[in-house]
Amino acid sequence: MAKQTPMMKQYLSIKEAYKDAFLFFRLGDFYELFFDDAVQAARELEITLTKRDSGSPNPIPMCGVPYHSAENYIKTLIEKGYKVAICEQVEDPKTAKGVVKREVIQLITPGTVMEKTMLNEKENNYIASLSHFDTSYVLVYSDLSTGENQLVVIEDGWDGVIHELYNQPIKEIVVSSQLPEDLQKQLKSRLHVTLSYQDEVTFNAEYRNLCENLHDEKLLTAFSRLLNYIQHTQKRSLGHMQQAKVIALQHHLSLDMYSKRNLELTETLIKKEKYGSLLWVLDKTVTAMGSRMLKKWLERPLLNAREIEKRLNIVEGFYSQFMERDELRETLKSVYDLERLAGRIAFGNVNARDLQQLKSSLQKIPALKQLLLQFSQPEMRQLAKQIYIDPKIVDILQTSIVEDPPISIKEGGIIKDGYNEQLDTYRDASRNGKQWIAELEQKEKQATNIKSLKIGYNRVFGYYIEVTKANLHLLPEGRYERKQTLTNAERYITPELKEKEQLILEAEEKSVELEYQLFIEIREQMKTYIPELQRLAEVVSYVDVLQGFATVSESNNYVRPTFDRKKLRIKQSRHPVIEQVMDDGTFVPNDIALDEHSHILLITGPNMSGKSTYMRQLALTVIMGQIGCFVPCESAQLLIFDQIFTRIGAADDLVAGQSTFMVEMLEANHAIANATEQSLILFDEIGRGTSTYDGMALAQAIIEYIHNHIQAKTLFSTHYHELTDLANTLPNLKNIHVRAEEHEGNVVFLHQIKDGPADQSYGIHVAKLANLPSSLITRASKILMELEGTSQSEAETKAEQAASTEQTGQLSFFTEEKQQHQPVSKSNNHDDKVIQELKDLDLFTLTPLDAMNVLYQLQKKARK
Ligand code: ADP
Ligand code: MG
């Protein structure tokens, strides 16, 4: 490499330590990027790439962003998953000898951002760490914006890690550099997170208070990996970090990755939006804290009946006293995000407006407590007891910060009069000075008889007396000193005026400085209250989520479920999301019954009749019950399930390189390997992704296995009609079907679930609904009739050949060979002729009218 200037040497030595980040190198009013950083940043940020030393043989690629607008550029990079190292000049360029000293003052990463504009207020922003031990993995989640820390031990291998991490709002994950490459790749590609490395895992005594409850060496090591990383990169106070909570997975309903995705709990499968998810329906929280807590609950429903009943009791209270609930909602609305405020206090980046918000939020706390006391449930009283905050905090903020402070904390106007004597003296001095000037203006007007005479101020000249040119003749010669001439006025000063000016400016400067100091003191004082604020935030969020459950339960007509050990009975069950997007009253409710004698329901019925909907609504109802919400039906006696497994829809995990059928088998395998008698399995049209016989054989084997070995409660929908015979051999399997009727050649969906198997398949009718050309539909119906003429036994003998044919979907049961010997092939020849004619047409020589004629002829032939 060519010889570098001293500054470039400095750049390169700093960059060496931040290889995986964009280095924003401060040069005057710009942050500059060089070399590969510049090339990549220019592309990502759509800014111009230039060259440094363009005359030299090896010019250096370079680009830059203005210092004052850097935040948006940084935000863009962080959102794309990159890291940005901010390198500042750390000495005054005027006094520096040689190259100005520079240092990285902060490494901004997706998992460590604190800036309000870079955070989604309704979602946690986790940085996680992953540590591998002999037989387990330990995951740690930390949200720097709220101070929350959680630890999860995964005993079931790498798969368990991916299932656990999936759908968590994780932006960055810290791993050991020894983690195998392919696993690192999986983290990046399947979870879309930024990877970071930390090999130092020794426990630092500074963290002691965060780890008091951790007695396992593994947990300490895992937590240390994350804390060391944060400490090394952030170089800031971690004063608001809370004690680590160990999440016992066995205390929560476990949802594997496929179920989280398929059931669209927090986002929809395809669009990845909240709209259309269960969260979208249930989120009637009014605070951002509550919204975040609800999302966490949906990720981890409960297993403990007492805990569930406690939540339900509170929801019932909120449900029945809606006037009080309404008032409570109003009160909660004016409580700001205490959790994140506490985080920003710790990081030292709150301004006076934030503290003002803190104050007004805390002022609502006594009212909140009173409101809770108006409910009759003992649980409410318990909650009210936990709602407490030291009145001293409000006192301090009340006496110190003005009602409507500016955003900047460096320009004064923040602190109230009477808070600090010294500040009051400065302010008096400045006010008195200004008063004196106002009086001077009056006096001079009278003395000179110039009504338009005025005293003004600007930054360059300070205070001046201004007289318009038209009035100059009235001004006695030598009364003032001339300072500046404008087109239509003259500006003057007097020694007295300048003396006062000096006093005023000095007082103002000092008071601004003092205000800043006072503000920092107040902010520091607030730090001591952080644990208290966090505790309060937790209770407030809890109240908010549960009032939200009551609100949605009332507006959507949900009922309180009960729990049983053996029998599940839901009367008139509905799908909580679909009923919301349909017109009122058009969703058809259905009963669901499962117990030890019928623990597998085999569901048949035409496409589009509502099989998938029925299955999903059961899973969603179960989850709603186990997070403590009322459920969409007339009455519900539920079981407490330990796990839910799903195989629904055709979701390709192409990013992970898995085809539909592979995903299908992985999902099925995951369920079969892990389900227990207490689990719920939903298998929707399994075996569809392969050829008919393969698929049917697999489906049957899976059902038998579940029936005989697992006995999990299972809903199994299928288009393989033949499977309904299984009811003859499997005593605990029950056939049900979705009713559809044929009306004048069209299928009418009634969406009603009935006992017994469905009597026919309606695939072609659905194709009709989808508006396929009518000639095509007629043709398909004809083929179907021909095919149905072929005997089933004949088809069966062809099973082996069939296993190698392509998927045939709904039309079921025939071999390709067969098709060719049917009249089908004749008509294919005929069709081929039409197609050939079509191909031979020279469109450019046809007039529109000719084209119409040709088309008419072709259609006539095709319909023959
Ligand atoms: P299948 O799985 O049998 O092909 P789906 O469950 O996907 O059918 O349902 C197809 C469509 O039918 C749904 O998108 C919904 O609009 C409608 N549907 C399903 N169940 C009901 C119901 N119980 N009441 C009203 N409409 C329903
Ligand atoms: Mg379906």
CATH fold naming of the largest domain: Rossmann fold
Uncertain stretches: 651-655, 790-827
End-to-end CA span: 78 Å
Give the helix/strand class: alpha/beta
Instruction: Indicate how many domains the architecture comprises.
Output: 7
Strand order of the largest sheet: 13-23-24-25-21-26-27
Write up this protein.
This protein is an alpha/beta fold and 864 residues long. The chain has 7 domains: 6-108, MutS, DNA mismatch repair protein, domain I (3-Layer(aba) Sandwich), CATH 3.40.1170; 121-247, MutS, connector domain (Nucleotidyltransferase, domain 5, 2-Layer Sandwich), CATH 3.30.420; 283-390 and 529-555, MutS, DNA mismatch repair protein, Chain A, domain 3 (Orthogonal Bundle), CATH 1.10.1420.10; 421-523, MutS, DNA mismatch repair protein, Chain A, domain 3 (Orthogonal Bundle); 562-759, P-loop containing nucleotide triphosphate hydrolases (Rossmann fold, 3-Layer(aba) Sandwich); 771-801; 826-864. The chain has a 7-stranded mixed beta sheet with strand order 13-23-24-25-21-26-27, sandwiched between helices. It has a 6-stranded mixed beta sheet with strand order 3-4-2-1-5-6, with helices on both faces. A 6-stranded mixed beta sheet has the order 11-10-7-8-9-12, sandwiched between helices. Strand 24 (680-684), helix 23 and strand 25 (713-717) form a beta-alpha-beta unit. The N and C termini lie far apart (78 Å). Bound molecules: adenosine-5'-diphosphate and magnesium ion. Adenosine-5'-diphosphate binds at residues 578, 587-588, 605, 607-613, 751. Keywords: ATP-binding, DNA damage, DNA repair, DNA-binding, Nucleotide-binding. ATP binds at residues 605-612. InterPro entries: DNA_mismatch_repair_MutS, DNA_mismatch_repair_MutS-lik_N, DNA_mismatch_repair_MutS/MSH, DNA_mismatch_repair_MutS_C, DNA_mismatch_repair_MutS_clamp, DNA_mismatch_repair_MutS_core, DNA_mismatch_repair_MutS_N, DNA_mismatch_repair_MutS_sf. This is DNA mismatch repair protein MutS.
